[in-house]
Amino acid sequence: MTMPGYGNHVPFAIGPSGAEFTGLTSWGNVTGSGRPENDATVGADASNLKAGIGVNMVFNGDYTDGLAGTVVGWRSGGNQHTLGRNLAGYTVQGEGTAYILQPGSPGTAVFDANVWNGQEGQHFAVTPGKKYEISAWLNCHRCNGAVVVLFLDAAGTQLAPLVGNSVSHASTISSIADMRQSWAIVTAPATAVKAYVIIRGYGINSKDPYVFFSRIYFGEAGAGQTEPSPWSPGRGISQITPSNVTTYIANAAIGNAQIDRASVNKLKVVTADIEDASITTLKVNGQAITVPVHAYNPGDIGFYSPGTLSWVTVQSAWVDPLGQNVFCLGTADWPNSNVDDQDTHMRIVAPNGAQLAYTTKGNRFSLVGTSNQTGAYVLQVARTRYSGTHYVRGASLFLLATKR
């Protein structure tokens, strides 16, 4: 038989040196150096490849999306450490580079950055007994560093942390070649259901230790894996958080939004319909704002008088007029039938103790005063002829301030 292109020759294959084929059987029947784990490719799968699967579960592992998903973690001692990104002279160009710094001289303290599944407190789901690969590229100044995975059980109990190889390399950073890899193949404990990744710095009795890190990796490992997986980015960020909002939103036009709670640094509003607002400090550029404050009790307020001029506060209200005038109106009735026109007294007092208005005689009082003080204004009453318990009704203190 002659095959096209081969003339009178029949094509055949020669196996690797030392290989002995016993027919079209499974790879278990192949001896010598022809197996997939000996760098052959036919019949290779996750059970026998040295290389990893390469599916990364870490969001934003190269920090191109800011620091989303990574937060300051635990420390064993020393000053509070901080988390930052893209320090000048220490950044992988085209990506992002995070770092943790523990200022001062922390001795041999341990300091962490926690890498979560997209947002703080959200763990990576794991399967008990399965192998996982952890990896990170580090550059450590005045300390050592390593990647760590912390598994937890269903109750949230922390299991023993599993640690990659230590890195001590230090240099400026412009490419990934300036970093060194810390990695490990680990097995999830029998009770583990979730995990998160840690970048850990180890103090070596030097001042101001830094750990720079990027290309964080956490994913399932192959049964026969002995080498780290090629780097691959994980999924994109699925939730906008305070740590990544400036990365994703520069300018926003929103037609209709319902917001449970918002912290706004600078806000421009053309038209607003606000049902209920509590504002600590209000400043309106070039405009006057009237701020009314009203304290009122429609019922009777009892107080004891020793029969001499002894003032008792029956109403108070607080205002900050920013140095402008406050209009004060105080009113109250004396319900007692035996009120003597020489016996009843009422006044309004400013926050600095100054008496703004005073009257006596009668059983229905109205007072008006002004001040520019910030603080609590009070309405006070007294009786001077009869000792014992007395009453005033409908005590009201109204303050109207104009702020500019």
Q: What would your notes on this structure say?
A:
The chain has 404 residues and is mainly β. It has three domains: 15-44, no CATH class; 70-220, Galactose-binding domain-like (Jelly Rolls), CATH 2.60.120.260; 289-403, Jelly Rolls, CATH 2.60.120.660. Helices cover 1% and strands 38% of the residues. It is built from one helix and 19 strands. Strands 1, 4, 5, 7, 8 and 10 form a six-stranded antiparallel sheet that branches. Strand 15 and strand 16 form a beta hairpin. The chain is elongated, with a radius of gyration of 38 Å. The model is unreliable at 21-25 (pLDDT under 50).
Ordered list of secondary-structure elements with their pairings:
Layout: E1 70-75, E2 82-85, E3 98-101, E4 110-115, E5 124-125, E6 131-141, E7 143-152, E8 162-163, E9 180-187, E10 194-203, E11 210-220, H1 245-248, E12 289-305, E13 312-319, E14 326-333, E15 344-349, E16 355-360, E17 364-371, E18 375-383, E19 388-403
Antiparallel strand pairs: 1-4, 2-3, 3-11, 4-10, 5-10, 6-9, 6-11, 7-8, 7-10, 12-19, 13-18, 14-17, 14-19, 15-16, 15-18
At the fourth CATH level, what is the homologous superfamily of the largest domain? Galactose-binding domain-like
What is the percent of helical residues? Answer: under 10%
Instruction: Tell me which CATH architecture of the largest domain applies here.
Output: Sandwich
Provide the domain count. Answer: 3
Q: Mean of residue pLDDT?
A: 84
Might you state the CATH topology name of the largest domain?
Jelly Rolls
Radius of gyration: 38 Å
- SSE order: EEEEEEEEEEEHEEEEEEEE
CATH class (first level) name of the largest domain: Mainly Beta
Give the structural class.
Answer: mainly beta
Strand content bin: 35-45%
Note the gap between the termini.
105 Å
For the biggest sheet, the summary is: 6 strands, antiparallel
Report low-confidence residues grouped into runs of 5 or more.
21-25
What is the count of β-strands?
19
Contiguous helical run count: 1
- Characterize the overall form: elongated
